[in-house]
Amino acid sequence: MKLAVLTTVAVSAAAANAQSSGAAASSPAVSGSAAVSGSAVASGASSAAPASVSLPSVSFSLASVNPTAVALTDLVPGTLTTQATLLPTATFAGGTVPTFLSNAPPLPDISTLSPANYPPLDKPPPTDSPEVQQWIKEVQSSGITIPNLAPTQPGGCGANPTFATDQSRCWWTCGGCTRDGDITACPDKLTWGLTYDDGPAPYTPNLLQYLDQANLKTTFFAVGSRCISYPAILREEYMAQHQIAVHTWSHPAMTTVSTEGIIAELGWSKKIIKDILGVTPIYWRPPYGDIDDRVRAIAKAMGLEAVMWTRISPTATFDTNDYNIAGGTVSVSQVLQNWEHIVGNASQMDTGFIVLEHDLFAQTVDLATGYILPAGLANDPKLNIKPVISCLNKPLSDAYLETNDNATNPLPTASNISPTLSSGSPGAAQATGNTSGGSSQNSAMGVRFDASGAVVMFGTAVLAFFASMF
Ligand SMILES: [Zn+2]
After folding, report:
1. In the chain, what are the domains?
2. Which residues make Cβ contacts (< 8 Å) with residue 260, sequence separation at least 6?
3. pLDDT in tens, 403-413
4. Distance 452 CA to ligand 1 centre (A)
């Protein structure tokens, strides 16, 4: 399969739409509708939403489009199969020792992996199991103090007006507060920390194939319940030298969960990944970015470092919003405009950046492989695309407990956690309000979902998707 990463031809998005929605659908070559220009940048507008859905049609421009991309007009709400779903390309037997990590344990035998030995999928794990009780004891003996903060009510900032404005809670969802230790950007300018959340999923191998052919590595924030369903895909990700990180068991908004419940979510996620890969991640991402000081402390007590996505102002977060396509609340053109703004903002920053994307849905994978990644690879100025661990200038071995070099990458302990507010390093979110951060590109980002809306819509979409799978 020829990929756009091999070509410098630029194509207008409008042309790409027209092309594949019409007779050319079976002939995805860009000739005839490609706009070759000196700058290799073309502009277009698309309206991917069906007429029955009222979504704005917005303009965007992309530096390049994959000639084999699924047409934007085909990336519509619902559960899609727009391309053949690839199977895992290789089977890695138990006992295989990864050679790309020093001191990596052999792969476990997953032939006997049984869902019966784990909590029910996509539900908050019980907290009275022996495993969770043991993890609770470990947190209690970690030396890390868990702040006595009440869980938030479901519904985000609007449902929690007091908590939302409580600076001492440092609730990222409401104002973007961060602490030292939160990873919110890559340090080096024009370095893109590539991340995909919520898999592994049926379409993930399609993304893996593209990444392999483009010689790219990423960070996958894996949901524990999905790992049970697709262990072979998780193993493919790991053995292809992508970074695997934790994204909870059932994908709740973590500030709403009890302390014991948070321990259960993180503990089971760490365990299933270790049971499949032999290694335990030491990085995690809170679903919806929903983190406050209580959640931070629990995660650190469990040896997990939080990776967010870059946020330079309330209206300029580096979230493509791709996950809302399947639920019908965002059009593909809006996502691609978000991407254009992200790249525009990134070029103005002194640091690199981390972008939120997803591999759960066909729509999000097709957008990544057909549009966002080809455009990113063709971007001028050049972007250095890396997994988060690499963008932090650390070896991949530092991503896992069993292979981490504690001498150079000390894990969180009670003595090295700073309780102070982040000083607001470049690219990091600010504790309050409108950092003017303030270019016109930021304001052009437009209105974003508030946290509660995003939570509700995403939850609905995910549940609908899961319901279709089981
Ligand atoms: Zn997620």
Report:
1. 130-321+383-469 (3.20.20.370)
2. 127, 132, 136
3. 999 888 988 76
4. 14
